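Re: weekly structure request thread

Next one in the queue (115 aa):
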Amino acid sequence: MFSQSLKKECESLGVEFKFNTSIERILVEQGQVRSVIANEGDVSCEQLLVCLGSYSKEMLKAIGLDVPIYPVKGYSLTVPITDQTYAPTSTIMDETYKVAVTRLGDRIRAAVRLN
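Done, posted below.
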């Protein structure tokens, strides 16, 4: 429901969604994104939101942008907070073991990254 509502709101603001479309490359002219070259033809744009997960890095590298996005493997667990006294108020990270614990409203998420 959230995603569908968000899509409708974005469309009301002029966003156009393209599904089942393969992006070949982004066309940049004079430092500005002009269009996306896709399997269904060119799509002109003034602004572009890249949502390709770990594939974003390679796509954006081709136009000179280096973004800190990396594919990771890991696990996470999200549980409700049962006692506010013991719940963290900010993120706790152990970079040695790649473990993070963070508060998400009335829930806690623990995550570990595997290499």
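Residues 98 and 113 are 5 Å apart (CA to CA). Strands lie at 23-29, 32-38, 41-44, 73-80, 92-94, 99-104, 107-114.
Next request, please.
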